[in-house]
């Protein structure tokens, strides 16, 4: 028997990002809302948590995540 084999697809990261983007555009798999200047934006908590340690901490502490932000705060969080 030989060792484990690996399958590599250089296009996988791009396809994955396109799929995630289409989910966002279609509001599919959204499980939270981000409120920015009074506008509710449907979001996926796992994507926000991966991009922001602050959001990750908020989601760990409060699973029913609800975050209201001012536009200037977005640069700090992400």
From TrEMBL:
<feature type="domain" description="BTB">
    <location>
        <begin position="30"/>
        <end position="56"/>
    </location>
</feature>
<dbReference type="InterPro" id="IPR011333">
    <property type="entry name" value="SKP1/BTB/POZ_sf"/>
</dbReference>
<dbReference type="InterPro" id="IPR000210">
    <property type="entry name" value="BTB/POZ_dom"/>
</dbReference>
<dbReference type="Pfam" id="PF00651">
    <property type="entry name" value="BTB"/>
</dbReference>
<protein>
    <submittedName>
        <fullName>Gigaxonin</fullName>
    </submittedName>
</protein>
